[in-house]
Amino acid sequence: MEAAPKHSRNVSRSSRPRSSTKGPLDQPDDPLDLDSLSKISTPLTGNPANHGTYMCACFSTLDTLASEELPTNLQKDLSFLLRYDNYHSLSHVDIPHALRSEFISLKSDETLTSALGTLEKLLVEGHFLMAAYLCGTILTSSLISPTDIRQIFALFYTRLACLELSGNTVIAAQESKSLEDLSSTFYYVDGPEKATDAHDSYPSYPRHIAPWPLRILAIRLQSIGFGDSRRGIGGLYELGLEARREIMRPDLGSAEREIWRGRLSDLGVRTVNALIEMGDLSSAKRSLESLRRTRSDHVLTDVRVVLLLLSIGDVDAARQLCVDIGDSKGALLKPLLCMAEGRYDDAVLEWRNLVGRNDKAMDDATISQNLAVCLLYTGQLNEARRALESLVKAHQSFPSLAFNLATVYELCSDKSVQLKTGLVEAIAEQPVTGYTNLDRPNADFKL
């Protein structure tokens, strides 16, 4: 087992974040994301089938707008992000042996290009814990210049994102504090001068040097690290004000303005999620209903409101809203309403009606898993087991599926440990897709 950089700070076993032991009906990490049960996206995407060449361009273009707005000769010393004591040591002792891979260390003659190529390969395959380790190794090596802000920010963002994706959110939250105050003047510079007509005058605002994805991620993680959830809400509102200011710039092109509008819409949903994490569901409901809706996302917003109403327990209001949702996403809500009311026999019938409908907006794997959960609650253990095992044979292995199947094994067999071990080995033999975290802990399989 490889160790983290030699001067890294060790994390005690008790302080390491463990994967949550969620029940079949518990919410996914994003309470408003319909797809989060089935897939998990990589921070930097690619094609896992093509392992030939990795160009590493994505690490320098994390934020295309920042690349255009910032001066080309920008010099900022980010050596405070390259210190060894910023990064915790990582371990894979909690990962089953069949899924365990050795951490990759830098060779003595390693170049930055080859190291980034290796990192991109790990991301494309879904080895998020290994990628997080390699990010920390590169950042604390001599390969990175303290003034190479684009590479440093991209690697730091990838490190935090991979820690989250591998279930180490607490570690990511602690490491995010090394950014300190992202709203300080250190992170702002004057934008490049643009030639304009004498009649075209507009205020020149300082530009933030950190990429937008890192700023978004750091707000949530720092609110966790500092134990102040209101800090996260305030940070999102500050970014919202910045996005509104950018949208109103008269010199902004239509493409850039559309990007900022998308960012503003995304911030609204993130604010709702932050309120949900705080436990303030009533405020989250009001905020979600007040979001400006376009024709394209009207149905999606309604679906999110229904899910939030079910979380609050207002089933009557959720049912009333479902009447106005007529597309395939609305069809997914009918069995969920049955489950919320404890009518699992009716839910079984509803889920069966949705299986195999060949609708692009539906995820057959998620539907089949929910069907299996309802079968479990109606006492049909053997059928639930067959349904979940068929998904595994079809190379579906998202975390909630593995956890639910492990639960079924515990309920229907005295040899559950052997069955769960066999499940781990079956998942380890599945082809790499890049959509699922391969470095999964024992808790995902209830081992």
UniProtKB/TrEMBL annotation:
Chain residue ranges for the region called Disordered: 1-41
Ranges of Basic residues composition bias in the record: 1-10
Residue ranges, compositional bias (Low complexity): 11-26
InterPro entries xrefs: TPR-like_helical_dom_sf
PANTHER family: D-ALANYL-D-ALANINE CARBOXYPEPTIDASE (PTHR21581), TRAFFICKING PROTEIN PARTICLE COMPLEX SUBUNIT 12 (PTHR21581:SF6)
Name of this protein: Trafficking protein particle complex subunit 12
Native species: Aspergillus pseudoustus
